[in-house]
Amino acid sequence: MSDQPAQQIKKPFLYVVVCAAGIAGDVGRLITAAQDANWEVGVVATPQGLGFLDAPAVEEQTGYPIRSAWRLPGDPRPLPPADAIAVAPATFNTINKWAAGISDTLALGILCEAHGFGIPTAVLPYLNSAQAAHPAYARSLEQLREMGVLIGSYEPHQPKAGGGADRFRWEAALELLTPKVPLAG
Ligand SMILES: Cc1cc2nc3c(=O)[nH]c(=O)nc-3n(C[C@H](O)[C@H](O)[C@H](O)COP(=O)(O)O)c2cc1C
């Protein structure tokens, strides 16, 4: 029998980017599914998205602070580097800004750089059909697809009809990302 200590297997680290959509408060479902599938998870919220979350509950569940603002120069990095990123839920606003290369929130800064770093990224849009009808939206999805971003298949809900939470599949993010991450699965 070897007297070497058992090698620690590194778990893949998933960033869940949470935007300000009505369903964001249920992100614990994705965190649980990811942890059950052997991921470590850290949450990055847009500044608007923060208000849609139960921050203490999310931090308790992940064991990491939620990131939303840039750190100061010299401050330590609060999260390990990402092996993969799930943007869930993704708003109309963040999808269009990300595709256009706008980086005015920490979440967008991380997403815009993820392409250059080659970090596998999946986006689960959650928006209504009036938002989706804007011509910028189809163009943004096409741009993200060209960048290699994996896109969930949520069919936009009717405006002012209470949303489509029952049809939103959080676990789709893991189904899209797992084949792309050697440490996962
Ligand atoms: C209660 C409420 C629910 C919202 N739900 C959505 C939504 O499901 N999808 C969406 O794209 N925007 C939604 N919005 C609008 C976004 O919050 C708004 O566009 C915001 O600027 C998005 O910020 P972010 O992309 O930085 O998270 C909602 C706003 C409110 C007040």
From TrEMBL:
Among InterPro entries, the record links this protein to: Flavin_trans-like (IPR036551), Flavoprotein (IPR003382)
The UniProt GO MF terms for this protein read:
FMN binding; phosphopantothenoylcysteine decarboxylase activity
Q: Which GO terms describe its cellular component?
A: phosphopantothenoylcysteine decarboxylase complex
Kindly give the Pfam families that the UniProt entry links to this protein: Flavoprotein
Instruction: Enumerate the spans annotated as Flavoprotein domain.
Output: 16-144
GO terms for biological process, alphabetical? coenzyme A biosynthetic process
PANTHER family found in the cross-reference section: HOMO-OLIGOMERIC FLAVIN CONTAINING CYS DECARBOXYLASE FAMILY, PHOSPHOPANTOTHENOYLCYSTEINE DECARBOXYLASE
The molecule here is called Flavoprotein
Q: Which organism is it from?
A: Streptomyces qinzhouensis
Lineage, please? Bacteria, Bacillati, Actinomycetota, Actinomycetes, Kitasatosporales
